[in-house]
Amino acid sequence: MCKKVEEIKKFWDDKAIEYGEDGRATLGESYLRLLEIRTMIRQIKCHKPRNVLDVGCGNGYSTKIFAKRFPSIQFVGMDYSEHMILCANKNQIKNCTFLVGDVLDLNSFPEEKFDLILTQRCLQNLVDYKSQYEAIKNLIGQKAQRGMLLLMECSKDGVERLNKIRIRFGKKPIENIEPWHNTFFIEKNLINDFKAKIIHFSSTYMFLSKIIDPRLSFLGYILPTVGKFGYDKLYKIR
């Protein structure tokens, strides 16, 4: 395991120790988190899966919300941080289980195939696109024949578009949106390699909270999504 991989894993282990079951363990922006969860709930409702694999589930915060919302669906949460899974296994839900697993290690996956496989800011924690490509191939191999991948990940393209709009509004670009432990996606890679369809669900939130005023972030959750410049995106891969 290379040094950066070890450092990223330790980062998330430390977050689990610091926050426990709290949703801030994996994302501090509360309204963006709510927007992510609502977007995923709509997708789950649309696809009507029998079972769902949540890869990079962290402390299980979102996974448990999904499981409560859809009690007839079986959910499995998987994360490579043992500390996160320890948190996830507290206050268990009947139709939801958690296990330690690495998206780059097929031997650590559950044996069953899944109708729906989702991630929320998981694959962007891999050190390069080569690793991300292998991870996506592993996920495709884990889905049922007519299954779907829902990859909710951040993109460099979205960051560039956001900062261009900030400049038009007379504001400086936001530095370091892509943190040290992340490698954001380039959209054309997912389109060309996996025929991904992109859902730009965070544009209104990003416009209001990152361009106009952070105090308007709650409106970004309430109002409909308009535009294609939010850097948190949903990639659908069949």
List keywords for this structure.
9 helices, single chain, 18% strand, Rossmann fold, alpha/beta
Overview of this protein structure:
This protein has 238 residues and is of the alpha/beta class. The chain has nine helices and seven strands, in the order H-H-E-H-E-H-E-E-H-E-H-H-E-H-H-E. It has helices at 3-19, 30-47, 61-69, 82-88, 129-142, 156-168, 187-194, 203-212, 217-222; strands spanning 51-55, 74-79, 96-100, 114-120, 143-154, 197-199, 232-237. Strands 3-2-1-4-5-7-6 form a seven-stranded mixed beta sheet, with helices on both faces. The mean pLDDT is 96.
CATH architecture classification: 3-Layer(aba) Sandwich
Question: Reading side by side through the largest sheet, how are the strands ordered?
Answer: 3-2-1-4-5-7-6
CATH fold name, please? Rossmann fold
Provide the structure class.
alpha/beta
What is the topology?
Blueprint lengths: L2 H17 L10 H18 L3 E5 L5 H9 L4 E6 L2 H7 L7 E5 L13 E7 L8 H14 E12 L1 H13 L18 H8 L2 E3 L3 H10 L4 H6 L9 E6 L1
Parallel strand pairs: 1-2, 1-4, 2-3, 4-5
Antiparallel strand pairs: 5-7, 6-7
Task: Write a brief structural summary.
This protein has 238 residues and is α/β, with parallel strands linked by helices. The protein has nine helices and seven strands; from the N terminus they run H-H-E-H-E-H-E-E-H-E-H-H-E-H-H-E. It has one domain (3-237): Rossmann fold (3-Layer(aba) Sandwich).
